[in-house]
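During the reporting period the student researcher (J.K.) took over the structure-prediction task from the postdoctoral fellow and processed the backlog of single-chain submissions. One of the processed entries is reproduced below for the supervisory committee.
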Amino acid sequence: MSIRHGLLALLERGPRYGSQLRTEFESRTGSTWPLNVGQVYTTLSRLERDGLVAQDGEDDAGHALYSITDEGRVELRSWFETPVDRANPPRDELAIKLAMAVGAPGVDIRAVIQSQRGHTVKAMQDYTRLKARALADVPTNRDEVAWLLVVEQLIFQAEAEARWLDHCESRLVRLAEAAATEPAARTPGTPAERRSAKAGGAGGARTGTRR
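J.K. obtained the following structure tokens:
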């Protein structure tokens, strides 16, 4: 999640102070990605250093206000217009866990999959209930619409993960079935046993030539 660009988007609506930005960010995303005030002010300091925001006096309560600069608007427009890069996806803990579980001694990977599927389905149901509550009243402002988009993305993501887990389990079943139908490999024996077998075979051949 680009906190940097999220704050720029909020500042484009007008000057704001740190805790106000945090509240609006969490309202827009339904607290899916909670922030702390320290994180907000650290990001604002970096944006100010880069010339994308500037301090803009104080409000009546003495809060330091920040405004987006022209350079910040250019940066924000570029962010909106540039596709999110998927060439280097973030590390996914579940994918790593299943990859490491394949063939790991003492690990029942199907049990791992079933446990995760139960958790994923429950999360999807929770998100669906949140969506139903959000739609109970028709969204009327931008924050409500933004939160609806976020919760729907979470639902789609959970659905995709559940399908992927089903696929993983099916692949493991096919792999097990293929292994069960493979002919047993011949055991070559120890080097001494192989030499003894060769010697016996050679002796038999020589004995057979004596008439």
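The committee noted the following: The longest helix spans residues 142-181.
J.K. will present the remaining backlog at the next meeting.
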